[in-house]
Specification:
TIM Barrel; single chain; 8-stranded parallel beta sheet; 29% helix; alpha/beta; 4-stranded antiparallel beta sheet
Length: 291
């Protein structure tokens, strides 16, 4: 379990983008509510990442599978940070959220402009969030934040000075965590892990989303990479690590054994949108039995 400085505690998280910009889920997920197979209230939800200005990206609402391909035991996506921009969110979504109904974590990203990142963090202060995640690792961008660890630390320091929320950072398997981790102590309250760039897992194979840059791989097929990072981080720091890549129910226990303090559900929402709710209900029941 992870407890943030505002006393919000959680064991199960919906990764950024899994449940849209408001935590209620995408249109194709909502009908599952009617039969009890989809319950956003069970999760601490990271909203889809916002940028300072609207970004078209590759996602088209009328054809969401345009930039997603399902693999055996996972998925690759090249959504490309499609979003209407932070000002839209602040006007349209922010005033409607209620922490008593849904626990939402903001998510922000910028291309190499840490002053802009801090500005975005300050823009979210009026809203009823439980935390703020800095996405320093989107595989669908070429921003310096993915390759420059010093730039990540600088950005987090600037955000920390402006935000009123507990701070989380989303890292990549490409990051120099030996450099980052000592500098994250006292700066962030949890670490999450992003999808793995296609070229990292399949260096000699063309991605089905090559026209969009290749995309990020997630799910069971990415576990050898993301779970190795969970174990490395847990051995390097006392900062809680959020374990990604759940595909089967048994993955939850495996992630905890590697040192994960909370469990994140991401692309499984795309492939099997009912599974996270069923898994969390079962996990909560199991945990209760041991209390």
């Amino acid at each position: 379990m992870i407890t943030l400085s505002n006393n919000h505690s959680f064991e199960h998280m919906a990764a950024s983008g899994a449940l849209a910009f408001d935590g209620q889920g995408w249109p194709w997920e909502k009908p599952l509510k009617w039969v009890g197979l989809f319950n956003p209230a069970l999760f601490t939800i990271v909203i889809k990442t916002l940028t300072r200005k609207p970004r078209k990206g590759n996602l088209r609402w009328y054809n969401p599978l345009r930039c997603i391909r399902f693999l055996r035991g996972g998925a690759v996506n090249a959504v490309g940070l499609t979003n209407p921009g932070i000002e839209w969110w602040c006007k349209t979504i922010g005033p409607t959220i209620d922490q008593k109904k849904l626990a939402l974590v903001g998510s922000i990203l910028t291309d190499n402009n840490n002053e802009e990142l801090a500005e975005m963090a300050e823009m979210l202060n009026p809203y009823d969030l439980v935390g703020l995640e800095v996405n320093a690792s989107c595989p669908n961008t070429t921003g310096e934040m993915l390759g420059n660890a010093a730039k990540v630390i600088e950005g987090l320091q600037k955000v920390k000075a402006k935000t009123r929320f507990p701070l989380l950072v989303k890292l990549s398997v490409l990051h120099d965590v030996e450099y980052l981790v000592p500098r994250l102590e006292g700066l962030v309250e949890a670490i999450s892990i992003n999808t793995v760039p296609w070229s990292k897992i399949f260096p000699n194979k063309t991605s089905p989303l090559a026209r969009f840059g290749g995309g990020g791989v997630s799910g069971k097929i990415a576990q050898p990479y993301t779970w190795d990072l969970v174990q490395r981080l847990a051995s390097l720091t006392s900062i809680p690590v959020i374990g990604p890549g759940v595909w089967d129910y048994e993955d939850i226990a495996r992630l905890r054994s590697l040192g994960a303090s909370a469990i994140s559900f991401g692309s499984i929402f795309m492939r099997y949108p009912w599974r996270p709710t069923l898994y969390v209900k079962k996990d909560r029941k199991t945990l209760t039995q041991y209390i």
